[in-house]
């Protein structure tokens, strides 16, 4: 019971921010004495700090109200985006404020062993940039191309050498002393979009493009839908949709500033936005290539929205009007709305951080959680005076 109450109190402080003792009593339904004992334990373990009282008010009678806050700096989370041509490592505190960020380009044909070794090096470097120890990490999320099976195995028989038939979760798990989650990048991007909408839309399909590669993340009834053994949304294998080979000069290296084709692609995008006919023809061709798949998704699942993300999201101002014109020529117009991603090319990072926080919640805000994690990973919580400054 004590652990359950502690987990509940900690969850309240995490969600609501600083709170007075009376507010915690009302929210938790616990007695003042029980709350006091729980807070003492949480402060001793480093997860909660008492805030300094405000300047005394001469009109106030009795002792000032005590306020407490969750220590978002008590530990950190790590997001790792593994792409064919780069590794992107990010460290954030428990409020998802970014503390360190590192992108390292690498050849697409890099072997699995080399890629994992570089990943370890990236983690070391980004943690050093953030000024935290590896032992301070309480959750890690990894995004990757390809199917991610329920047991953490990766299935990507093309693009990245040897990136199939092994447990990426186990491989990354050897680098950390905390839970590691691995998920397909399109699904994680959809999760990031779901977080941004905060339940506003319950059902949507997120079409994610990384240059010319494409995948779909599905959120149905406000939950990420993985399908049988993680295979949902792998439209590269459904060739009749016309989405498997989405070749366009508008997409080549669009969101990779370090890639050789980036400058030429952006010149074409700029020309399209300026209304130049040759560039608008490319927009029209790309919209045509997307229209069959979008129509099928709209009528098969009838989601509230179909969202263009990744490289497609970067082009949303051009693509959505062109797509709507194409879809208007169908025998019956679709009822699903088309929309661009709110996060653009940051949707995968946002989803990774969200998955880390969900993992933290499963560890920390459940009855056995506080006892399982134990003390905060970063010692020496600030004094009330320091916390108030």
From TrEMBL:
InterPro entries: ATPase_NBD, ROK, WH-like_DNA-bd_sf, WH_DNA-bd_sf. Signal peptide: none annotated. Keywords: Kinase, Transferase. GO terms for molecular function: kinase activity. It comes from the Bacteria. Belongs to the ROK (NagC/XylR) family. This is Putative NBD/HSP70 family sugar kinase.
């Amino acid at each position: 019971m004590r652990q359950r109450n502690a987990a509940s109190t900690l969850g309240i402080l995490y969600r609501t921010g600083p709170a007075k003792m009376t507010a915690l009593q009302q929210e938790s339904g616990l007695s003042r004495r029980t709350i006091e004992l729980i807070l003492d334990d949480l402060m001793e373990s480093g997860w909660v700090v008492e805030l300094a009282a405000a300047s005394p008010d001469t009109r106030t009678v009795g002792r000032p109200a005590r306020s407490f806050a969750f220590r978002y700096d008590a530990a950190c989370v790590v997001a790792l985006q593994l792409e064919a041509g780069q590794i992107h490592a990010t460290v954030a505190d428990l409020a998802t404020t970014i503390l360190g960020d590192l992108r390292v380009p690498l050849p697409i044909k890099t072997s699995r062993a080399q890629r994992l070794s570089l990943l370890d090096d990236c983690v070391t470097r980004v943690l050093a940039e953030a000024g935290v120890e590896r032992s301070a990490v309480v959750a890690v999320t990894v995004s990757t191309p390809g199917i991610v099976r329920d047991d953490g195995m990766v299935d990507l028989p093309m693009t990245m050498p040897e990136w199939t038939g092994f447990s990426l979760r186990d491989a990354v798990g050897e680098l950390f002393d905390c839970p590691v989650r691995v998920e397909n990048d399109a699904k994680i991007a959809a999760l990031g979009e779901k977080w941004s909408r905060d339940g506003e839309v319950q059902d949507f399909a997120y079409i994610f493009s990384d240059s010319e590669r494409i995948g779909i993340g599905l959120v149905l009834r406000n939950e990420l839908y993985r399908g049988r053994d993680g295979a949902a949304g792998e439209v590269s294998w459904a060739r009749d949709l016309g989405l498997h080979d989405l070749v366009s000069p508008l997409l080549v290296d669009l969101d990779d500033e370090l890639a050789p084709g980036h400058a030429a692609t952006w010149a074409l995008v700029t020309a399209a936005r300026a209304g130049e006919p040759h560039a608008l023809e490319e927009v029209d061709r790309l919209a045509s290539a997307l229209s069959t798949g979008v129509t099928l998704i709209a009528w098969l699942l009838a989601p509230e929205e179909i969202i263009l993300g990744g490289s497609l999201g970067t082009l949303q101002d051009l693509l959505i009007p062109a797509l709507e014109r194409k879809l208007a020529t169908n025998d019956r117009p679709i009822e699903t709305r088309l929309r661009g991603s709110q996060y653009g090319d940051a949707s995968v990072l946002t989803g990774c951080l969200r998955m880390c926080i969900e993992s933290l919640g499963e560890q920390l805000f459940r009855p056995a959680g506080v006892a399982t994690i134990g003390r905060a990973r970063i010692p020496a919580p600030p004094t009330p005076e320091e916390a108030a400054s």
